[in-house]
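Task card 7
Instruction: Convert sequence to C-alpha cells.
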Amino acid sequence: MAADEDQADVIVIGTHGRRGFQRLALGSVAENCARQAQRPVILVPPAAAEAGNAVS
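Output:
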C-alpha cells in the first residue's frame, strides 16, 4: 500500500456520498480503504467542500 511505502501517519480520502442500491452495486473504495488500512483513515464527505473553504 502506498501509505506503507511513504510511511504516512494518516490517510485522508474523499467519498462520493453514495447510498442504498448504488453503494451496494458499486461498492465503496473509501470504505474498503478504511477497513483494510493499518493506519488511521479520515473519510471526507462531499458536503465538507460546501461547509467552508478554510482549508488551503
